[in-house]
Amino acid sequence: MTTLQGLYRPKTVAEATALLAQDPEAKPLAGGATLVAMLNARVLEPAALVSLADIDEIKGISTLPDGRVRIGAFTRHRDTAACTLPLGSCAVVPHAASQIANATVRNMGTIGGSISFADPGLDYPPALVAAKAEIEIASTEGRRTLPASEFFVDWYLTALEPGEMVTAVYLPANDGGVGTYVKHARVAGDYATASVAACLHGDASLSVAVGACGPTPLSDPEADAILSSDRSDAGITRAAQILVEHADPLDDVRGSADYRRQLIPRLLLRAVRTVEAAHRSAA
Ligand SMILES: Cc1cc2nc3c(=O)[nH]c(=O)nc-3n(C[C@H](O)[C@H](O)[C@H](O)COP(=O)(O)OP(=O)(O)OC[C@H]3O[C@@H](n4cnc5c(N)ncnc54)[C@H](O)[C@@H]3O)c2cc1C
């Protein structure tokens, strides 16, 4: 193992992962929105940065022959938010991107940088879990793909191993459904105090995930089963109770744990009624 120093600008994923394998202390640099702030504050002082900005393979959004949609890790939030591909229930992902911070941050930040940092208040993680997205990870050993629900492991911790990087996010093929992301923040442009991502699939089943109410996005098969069969106010209340029981929120500057628990039923009701209305108007 060698110690790298300075800024490296690989042109391919193979070159980038070779650098990260040489020195697992080297940090990938994507949009820099978070990493540069951490460098300025000296929270992190890596000797080497591996810029991902020149790797074309991890930029942009495309539809694959099997209908899935690939979002390259270096795709900026503004481009994901502006995606016009027909995504069905996975439209929850661009909807979440459109609510990240403000235009300046959306112009800088990338989906790979966001999910690798794994702040529990981020907007993508619940959207990706509700959408049943997959995350592609590369290293010198090759590539592996994980469901988003397994990628987020704990507070600020992902399934990324030393020497690995995120290369893409895969969204399931258009299911003819609709998706929405409902975010509650103290002020416009802030991280979520709590959020709910909801996907009403083409077969009328519903999957949801709650953000900012625990170390990782909160989803529960029992809550999804209830919401798939009973979307009366009582059904939504029962599903919300299950989610509240499994929530593990913190008290922090964005709200108390108790306040966050109280937000879950309200945001869930709004999200479910929003996807139902969108589905009716699309029919
Ligand atoms: C003022 C401000 C407000 C914000 N508000 C919100 C908000 O409301 N909602 C929200 O969701 N986000 C918010 N963010 C976060 C922002 O959206 C970015 O997602 C985030 O800053 C990281 O993306 P980036 O591309 O800039 O990554 P960077 O800052 O470059 O990197 C972040 C971390 O990820 C690692 N990394 C980067 N790319 C990869 C990769 N491909 N593989 C493996 N590791 C990688 C880096 O080494 C670093 O540790 C905010 C950020 C700021 C500065």
Level of helix content? Answer: 25-40%
Tell me the structural class. alpha+beta
Bound ligands, named by name, code or SMILES = flavin-adenine dinucleotide
Number of strand elements:
13
Overview of the molecule:
Strand 12 and strand 13 form a beta hairpin. This protein has 283 residues and is α+β, with helices and mostly antiparallel strands. Helix 9 runs antiparallel to helix 10 and helix 10 crosses helix 11. The model has no long low-confidence stretch (mean pLDDT 96). Among the domains are: 52 residues, 2-Layer Sandwich (Uridine Diphospho-n-acetylenolpyruvylglucosamine Reductase, domain 2), CATH 3.30.43.10; 105 residues, 2-Layer Sandwich (Enolase-like, domain 1), CATH 3.30.390. It is 35% helix and 22% strand. The protein has eleven helices and 13 strands. Flavin-adenine dinucleotide binds next to strand 2, helix 2, helix 5, helix 6 and strand 10.
What's this entry about, in short?
The chain has helices at residues 13-22, 35-40, 77-81, 92-97, 103-108, 111-117, 124-130, 148-151, 221-229, 233-246, 257-282, and strands spanning 6-8, 27-29, 48-51, 61-63, 69-72, 134-139, 142-147, 152-154, 157-158, 165-171, 178-184, 194-200, 206-211. It has 283 residues and is an alpha+beta fold. Helix 9 packs antiparallel against helix 10 (233-246) and helix 10 (233-246) crosses helix 11 (257-282).
